[in-house]
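Reading a protein record of the kind used here takes little practice once its layout is understood. Each number in the token line that follows is a code from a learned vocabulary of backbone shapes. One such record is shown here in full, so that the layout can be seen directly:
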Amino acid sequence: MSPLTYPPKPRPGDRVAVLSPSAGLPAIFPEVHELGLRRLRDTFGLIPVEYPTTRIMGADPADRARDVTAAFADPSIAAVLATIGGDDQITVLPHLDDAVLRANPKPFFGFSDNTNLLNHLYGLGLVGYHGGSVMVHLGRAGGLHPATADSLRAALFDSDWYELRPSVDWTDEPGDWRDHDVLAGPPRMFPGEGWTWAGPERLVEGTLWGGNLEILSWLAQADRIGPTAGLAGCVFLIETSEELPPDVEVYRILRNLGERGLLAGFPAVLVGRAKAWHHERPLAGPEKRAYVTAQRAAVTRALAEYAPDAVVVFDLDVGHTDPQLILPYGGTVRVDGTTRRVHARY
């Protein structure tokens, strides 16, 4: 496969589009959204530009796609950031103008349901950025986590290699946005315990592909994933959402991707720290540990059956937990099982 195109990077002072290709939650939680916009301006020196559907909940998929296309087409816009995820971005993709996106490459930042658009850009030969949504991590109560801020700054403005490192602390228990006092202080944090490595001690360098596991399952069902042969040699990224999928479902999704022939082609797998708590399902300590253990066992079982020679790294801060490190979707990553280091080329 030919290397994908890294879009030109923005610079401080540039205008960036802030869109809601998935859920229009800025309409429901404007304080959180405004905080994220403020951080874009004050911390990163970027000028956020909203589009017609950015603050509309339940906007028509065609209208959301029109905003995405317009943001890419506008020569005054240097990057595109999603406000948050959702669950129906897959319905937006057919309405995109691919010729416009391909002719006007821009860095796109998003995760979760934005796996749809990241995978779509991948199919167009463009590198995107997994992470960096405006409301979740830019709008974090108590300030951006230092690891998030450092990674996002590098992904936005730099084009060199960046080393991902285990965070000294983390959380999967953010404040409830329905609580008006939630933005007053930082979330409860837990001490970091590093990464867990499995598989052979060797160096793998390849193109990153994957994303949120539940969304990948939907994409596979809708036949929106490219040919298996075209993904061979990629470093596979997976992480799970606040919906807390059961371990049996995680195994089945990976098993089915394995039956498709995908897993056997991945020489390395990056597994995000499993989110094990949600406001609607606040697991206590022992339950949380049991959930995380079961998740890891499900991933381990599937990879042992379909990708036994892959280098595997568990518990990276690359998904729905906090902090969040940015990964170049379609870009190059280096996974070194000998030195146990991970680098991404931004």
In short: The two ends are 19 Å apart (CA to CA).
